[in-house]
Write a structure and sequence with these properties.
Layout: H1 2-28, H2 35-49, E1 54-58, H3 62-91, H4 98-112, E2 117-121
Antiparallel strand pairs: 1-2
Helix pairs in contact: 1-2, 3-4
């Protein structure tokens, strides 16, 4: 069932979301200061590509992660959060799209707080 969910996810917008995360990660890696932000974005791009069957745990980010998350929200995260929130609203209108909307809600949270996240298989 996870494979089918991930396959439909790729067809109905998951691939585009993963490309956006990847592009933002690569753009951030251009400068030395942006490398930690770019690595977080690339980590989350992999999660965005194949989200069903994996869970995200947010927490344990310390003072450095808190500062990184604040900078992330101000510079990069709010655009991706708005994108995922709008897609979540569109998908949750129908019963069939509800699982995809649920994944976009999870990605909205990750768009705001990428530092201190751990991705675990379910």
């Amino acid at each position: 069932m996870r494979f089918i969910g991930n396959l439909f996810w790729l067809i109905f917008g998951g691939f585009i979301s993963a490309v956006l995360w990847t592009l933002s990660g690569l753009l951030m890696c251009i400068t030395i200061i942006g490398i930690p932000f770019g690595l977080q974005a690339l980590k989350l791009a992999g999660f965005t590509l194949w989200p069903f069957g994996r869970e995200v745990e947010i927490g344990n980010f310390g003072i450095g992660g808190a500062i990184g998350n604040i900078i992330w929200i101000m510079l990069f995260g709010w655009e991706l959060a708005v994108y995922h929130a709008l897609l979540a609203l569109l998908f949750t209108i129908t019963i069939i799209g509800f699982p995809f909307g649920k994944q976009h809600i999870k990605l909205t949270r990750l768009s705001l707080i990428p530092f201190g996240t751990a991705i675990h298989p379910v």
